[in-house]
Predict the 3D structure of the following.
Amino acid sequence: MIWTSVNHGKYSLAENPMERRGLIKLMAGASVTAVCSPAGNISASRVPLRGKPLVPGPKTKVSLAGVSKNAPENAVKQAVRCSTEAATDFSWLSKGDTVFIKPATNSGNPYPATTSPIAVSAMVEILREKGAGRVIVGDMSGVEYLKFSPARLKGSTRKLMESSGMAKVVQAAGAELNFFEEAGWSAFHEEMPLAGSHWKHALMMPDVLKEVQHIVLMPRCGRHLLAGCTLGLKAAVGYWRHDTRLEYHHDASTFNEKTAEANTVETLRKKQRLVVTAADKILTTIGPDKGCIFQPDNGLVIASESVVAHDMVSLAWLLENRCSMPDTEKNGFIDTSKLIPRLANHVLVGWLGGWGQALNSETFNKNTLNAVWDDLVLNHAYEIFGGVPGIVLESSNNMVPVDLKKRLDEMTEFPY
């Protein structure tokens, strides 16, 4: 096995894929480790320590637009427009500005394993109408599909986006495509999260973000084998070079805290304006690439200027739809197992840094999500971003059932 040193001290990236014997040794070691181990605006200058009690934050608007099951493309686009225009007045956008749209392209699987192409196309059209000059859509896929090091690149986010159907509609809408790995290992720069974070090193962010004035985040609503859910805050992973992803997975005991803290880097604090999720389809089990696709009779488009408020409502919507599933689906072993995520995280570390790194990586503990308040990523985000947002839900069209809005209100109301 060839090893390539990088500037992150104790971490190194494997240049070649693991040999069969290495993978077997990794899995054996991971099994032993897993079985034997114990189970807005930023208002502060430092990331707070764990364990602080939750405090209420400012009132924060989250816009909902309803969309019927199997609605035609123009109806979905209209729902995106309604929700988006209710969430922001676009006063931040000046004529000719460059806007970066960050979807979720973890794999080449279609929506909802990845972001809705129709929704992204609608957002491109809206931004152009509002005066944007260049609109760039870009991402970097999951490590199971992309091997990236200073000396080697295997896999292609571009091909994955083509497979999911997103690339074609994005280009048809008049946007550019950008895939971070194509610019090379050196086309990334260091950004530090707020002081006091659990990150040991700077996060390596793509240089293309220096060229843009604004970022619109467009995640999906779904489960995640490791994290429990994959919404807006976790979408930051798609920006990172693979040495940053190695630290993220290797130091697994602070996985949730680092997820929240990654959203405090300067580029995201200063340039991210809006978070929009089309969720008329929800990946309700396993994730992020495969699982049960659930289509409620009344789907939603969720939009907010606050990623934390957005994620609270998006998680409530995910949990609402899991309640509508048969117990045999939502209580499947893979979906609820604590052991499988531990093994999977060791494997991910192996893909990123080799099986030696995997064997000495920290034990991953999956976060069980039965309510919005169980999410450790969100709980840490509340501390960082000035308290628990007081969610103000607004229906932006007449297709959001009153009883559904009431349930989402109750699920996201601060637990006094």
